[in-house]
Amino acid sequence: MKAVKSVYSNYIGFSGRAARSEYWYFVLFYMIVGAVLSIIDMQTGMVSQGGMGVLGTVFGLASLLPSIAVGFRRLHDTGRSAWWFLIAFIPLIGVIVLIVWLASPSQPGDNAYGPNPYGE
User: Fold this and answer.
1) What pLDDT does residue 109 have?
2) What is d(CA 32, CA 110) in angstroms, rounded to the nearest whole number?
3) Three-state DSSP state, 101
4) Is 27 exposed, middle or buried (0-12, 13-18, 19+ CB in 10 A)?
5) For the chain, which residues make up each domain, given as ranges?
6) Of 46, 71, 94, 110, which is least packed with CB atoms within 10 Å of its CB?
7) What pLDDT score was predicted for residue 77?
8) Dihedral pair phi/psi, residue 92, rounded to 5°
9) Dist. CA 19–CA 49, nearest whole Å
10) How far apart are CA 82 and CA 37, in angstroms?
């Protein structure tokens, strides 16, 4: 929960670094909550004709900026510019490369984006 609180408290903080654990715990939280809200949307009939649930949509919109910000900070932690986040728009290969970078270990010590978070 500490990692998730950290992401939401730094809601639009695009500078600095995010540890690998902070990023991936946030992704896990996002997927679990999204799945639970989708089930609730389906059970309560709050799904539109396009298949979008009300609760899931509100949660997704509320988490959009924090998820982008933590992704940028995670790339900073590996020593890459946040502009590399755009590589995800290259079909298939771009997403694979981005996932590998996001799963890479932190750059040791300080880098151009700040000190190493959590000492990872």
Assistant:
1) 84
2) 33
3) helix
4) middle
5) 2-119
6) 110
7) 92
8) 60, -65
9) 39
10) 30
DSSP annotation string for 38-88: HHHHHHHT-B-TTS-BHHHHHHHHHHHHHHHHHHHHHHHHTT--GGGGGGG
Residues near 98 by Cβ (< 8 Å), separated by ≥ 6?
84, 85, 87, 88
Does the pTM surpass 0.70? The reply is yes
CA angle, 68 then 104 then 15, to 5°: 35
Mean pLDDT by 10 residues, the chain (120 residues): 85 88 93 94 86 90 94 93 95 95 91 79
CA distance 41 to 57: 10
pLDDT for res 119: 62
Six token digits for residue 51: 């298949």
